[in-house]
Amino acid sequence: MSGLRARQKADRHRRIIEAATALFRESGYEGAKIEVIAAQAEVSIGTIYNYYQNKGDILGAIVSLEVNEVLNAGRGVVARPPANVGDALDTLIGIYIEHSLHYLSKEMWRQAMAISTQLPNSPFGQAYTALDRSLTDQIRALIARLQAIGLVREDIDGAALGELIFNNMNMMFIEFVKRDEARIPELRTAIRRQNRILVAAIGV
Amino acid sequence: MSGLRARQKADRHRRIIEAATALFRESGYEGAKIEVIAAQAEVSIGTIYNYYQNKGDILGAIVSLEVNEVLNAGRGVVARPPANVGDALDTLIGIYIEHSLHYLSKEMWRQAMAISTQLPNSPFGQAYTALDRSLTDQIRALIARLQAIGLVREDIDGAALGELIFNNMNMMFIEFVKRDEARIPELRTAIRRQNRILVAAIGV
DNA sequence: TTCTAAAATTGAGTCAATTCTGTTTTTATG
DNA sequence: CATAAAAACAGAATTGACTCAATTTTAGAA
């Protein structure tokens, strides 16, 4: 019987994530003390460290939820892309960016990104890299789809192009979260302008 | 007379940076305790914090040295670029990448990047952003030069293109420092492959 | 040379993440 | 239902970055 123990475990996980999400949003990542998260989740400090290797991993679990939602939303665009290369890219990237601040504040993103570079081999570091990879793959899938439809030249190196587009978008997003006053519409406009160069180069 | 006081100050700065560089390389950023840096530099803990706002700023000073060297080396390429768009980009990017591990280990880069996203408004965060900006500007200058020579089409949006190339390179470099086993030649090959798409699009 | 205000240094103390060890709870077995 | 091993928990102790009030050093005026 794996009953009680497993149930309690899942329950504690949930309580910790809920408490942390609330506190991160409320007081910021640094401001949310482990002691307080523990109290609000009704577990001890030791238990938190039994579930997560460090404070960053708690944030990591929250980031994963967000990115997986974004990936899901992106699937629809890849399946039925707008009938124009520029719009197709803009729509997919739009989904990524518009969703991005749904659960996570800019400060939470900054911390998450920082931790993922700081500790690339921690559970969260690896998970974050995998998420980036999934996003890159989704952009590549869109390009492949556009090639299949005949909107993008067949001789284009889709794998390299997908990386190029993702890397540029991601870097722009990093700069975006670094500046509290930066706004989404301007971010999207800037990325559109950059992608225009590519769109001109790859269209049939 | 600005003598003694200024001299001692410069001397202490130098000793702190020297001690920190050695210890960061030896024990890693986390492993290098402020207490030990202070002892090795023959100043007190408090003095270190009088010179630098936090541990990250010490690393920041070292990063600035490195990046400024790279920027200097890049000037030569911009002044007399190879007579071919692909080679010109590859040469400039080659300089950036080949220099990058001269003073800084991958671990130091990871920390520096992490801090710059984590605390974008700290002295170091701002300096790091400015350095990125300078590198972007240098790539833009190269493109402008190539346009002047007639190797790149005049109607290309040079500003956006420069960002695109820098952002992609930078993101590739971030992934590179995140993986200890990653090697420079493979990094350069991958970036060359990505840039090939652009080169094809922008050549006259 | 002597003296004083300003500048700089010092290191013990604070604070919060993480570790560690003893205790409690759960499970499985007879 | 008793019990021993395994798993999970608790929270006091540790650790290391950073602060701050007291002390020392320097500059330069008298």
Word description of this protein:
2 copies of one chain form a homodimer. Chain A is 81% helix and 0% strand. Chain A is mainly α and 204 residues long. Chain A folds into 2 domains: 1-51, Orthogonal Bundle (Arc Repressor Mutant, subunit A); 55-202, Tetracycline Repressor, domain 2 (Orthogonal Bundle), CATH 1.10.357. In chain A, helix 1 (3-31) packs antiparallel against helix 2 and helix 4 crosses helix 6 (106-118). The longest helix of chain A is centred in the N-terminal third of the chain and has 29 residues, at 3-31. The radius of gyration of chain A is 20 Å and the shape is elongated. The A-B interface holds A 110-111, 113-115, 117-118, 120, 125, 129, 156-157, 160-161, 163-164, 167-168, 170-172, 174-175, 177-179, 190, 193-194, 196-198, 200-202 and B 110-111, 113-118, 120, 125, 129, 156-157, 160-161, 163-164, 167-168, 170-172, 174-175, 177-179, 190, 193-194, 196-198, 200-202. The structure holds a DNA duplex (30 and 30 nucleotides).
- CATH-derived topology of the largest domain in chain A: Tetracycline Repressor, domain 2
For the residues shown, what is the average pLDDT of chain A?
Answer: 93
Measured by residues with Cβ under 8 Å of the partner chain's Cβ, the largest interface is: A-B, 35 and 36 residues
CATH level-two architecture of the largest domain in chain A: Orthogonal Bundle
The low-confidence runs of chain A, each spanning 5 or more residues with pLDDT under 50, are none
Oligomer: homodimer
General shape of chain A: elongated
**Biggest pleated-sheet summary of chain A:** none
Overall number of structural domains of chain A: 2
Q: Could you give me the name of the CATH homologous superfamily of the largest domain in chain A?
A: Tetracycline Repressor, domain 2
Strand composition percent of chain A = under 5%
Distance between the termini of chain A: 61 Å
Considering DSSP H and I runs of 4 or more, what fraction of the residues of chain A is helical?
over 70%
Element order of chain A: H for helix, E for strand? HHHHHHHHH
CATH class of the largest domain in chain A: Mainly Alpha
Structural class of chain A: mainly alpha
The number of distinct helices of chain A, counting runs of at least 4 residues, comes to 9
| Gyration radius from CA atoms of chain A, angstroms | 20 Å
β-strand number of chain A: 0
